[in-house]
Amino acid sequence: MKNSLKITSIGLGLLFAGTVCVAAPAAENWENNCTKCHGADGKGDTKIGKKLKLKDYSDAAVQAKFSDEELVKAINEGVSENGKEKMKAFKDVLAPDEIKDLVGYIRKLKS
Question: Residue 43 contacts by C-beta under 8 Å, 6 or more apart in sequence?
Fold first, then answer.
């Protein structure tokens, strides 16, 4: 009986531990997933950013042209242009809260 209780307790502990997920900070997600193309400052003046003609997210006028919902959709689903993938989807990489925080981070890039 005692062994059964121990096994149950251990099993529940492992189950709980497996469901706890720690979200990465938005700055870390930006660094790990976005800077290669968009640059650390969001200007898009990286080699890839220039090739893809990315928008300058540090420009308030550029940011005024899209909503938070549009940013969330782009991050979740990716961006395609003329049938070619311009940005991969991150819905399988980032949790919904991480995407929401990333949108907030992008908004803070504007001058």
Answer: 49, 56, 57, 58
Side-chain-facing half-sphere of 86: CA atoms under 13 Å: 15
Measured CA to CA, the distance from residue 54 to residue 35 in angstroms comes to 12
CA angle 62, 106, 71 (to 5 degrees): 75
- Could you tell me the sign of the dihedral formed by the alpha carbons of 51, 95, 101, 81, in that order? positive
* Tokens encoding 76: 């979740």
pLDDT in tens, 69-105: 999 999 999 999 999 999 999 999 999 999 999 999 9
The CA distance from 13 to 19, in Å, is 10
CA 93 – CA 98 distance, rounded (Å): 10
pTM of the model: 0.77
Q: Exposed, middle or buried, 3 (CB in 10 Å: 0-12/13-18/19+)?
A: exposed
Q: Which of 41, 50, 102 is nearest to 76 (CA)?
A: 102
